[in-house]
Design a protein that fits this description.
single chain, 156 residues, mainly alpha, Arc Repressor Mutant, subunit A, 2 domains, 10 helices
Length: 156
C-alpha cells in the first residue's frame, strides 16, 4: 500500500488512487501465491531447467553431458590427425628400411632434410646428375605394389 501512496501524484491525476492501489495489491497477492501473468510464464527464469537434471530416458545421464563441447571435438580431431601422422611415419620408415642404404640416404636428405638435389649430391659425394638418377631409382623402388598397399592402408 505504501508503494501506491508514494507513486500517486494528485496533480498529474493520470490514474485514480483506487486504481493504483488495486494494481499494487493484485501484484503483491499474485507474487505471494506464486501466480504469474501470461508474459511472466514464458520468461526464461520460470521455464529454465538445471543442467544437472537427469534426462527423461536415463536417470544417470544429465543434460550437461548431452551438450557437445566444441573444444573437445577439436582435441579429438587433433589426436586423430596426430595418430594418423604417426602411423604414416611408421609405414614410411618401414618402407624406407627396405631400400638400399645409398638410396635411403638420398631420399632422407632430399625429402626429410628438405634439401635440393645439388645439396644432396654434395653431401653424399656424387655428381648432381648421378644423385638425380639415384633419387629416381629410389622413388621407383618405393612405388612397388606392396609399398603402395602399405601407404593406402594409412589413408584417413
Amino acid at each position: 500500500m505504501l508503494q501506491a501512496v508514494d507513486t500517486f501524484d494528485a496533480e498529474r491525476a493520470e490514474a485514480s488512487f483506487i486504481g493504483l492501489l488495486s494494481y499494487y495489491l493484485k501484484r503483491q497477492f499474485a507474487s505471494a501465491y506464486g501466480l504469474h501473468t501470461a508474459a511472466g510464464k514464458n520468461d526464461a527464469i520460470h521455464i529454465a531447467v538445471s543442467l544437472d537434471a537427469p534426462t527423461a530416458e536415463d536417470e544417470e545421464t544429465t543434460l550437461a553431458e548431452l551438450i557437445p563441447d566444441a573444444k573437445s571435438t577439436v582435441l579429438f580431431e587433433q589426436i586423430a590427425q596426430r595418430d594418423y601422422l604417426d602411423y604414416l611415419r611408421r609405414a614410411l620408415d618401414t618402407i624406407l628400411a627396405a631400400l638400399p642404404a645409398a638410396y635411403r640416404e638420398i631420399i632422407v636428405l632430399r625429402y626429410y632434410g628438405d634439401q635440393d638435389i645439388s645439396a644432396v649430391a654434395g653431401a653424399i659425394g656424387m655428381t648432381e646428375q648421378a644423385a638425380r638418377a639415384a633419387e629416381n631409382k629410389a622413388l621407383r623402388l618405393l612405388r612397388t605394389p606392396r609399398n603402395m598397399a602399405i601407404l593406402s592402408a594409412a589413408k584417413m
